[in-house]
# Entry
Amino acid sequence: MAIAQAERRLFGREIDRIERIVLGITGPLLVLAHVVLALTVMALLYALLLPL
# Structure
């Protein structure tokens, strides 16, 4: 734990910047993944209900 705190003190600003970049990339990707999943589910439902 002490090592982690020392690393945080040494690289704190660098880590914060990297975290911000990573979150900036993963946020929109997560939204895109949900949109694709929703469209896939709707397409499957449509295909299953079409013959009825």
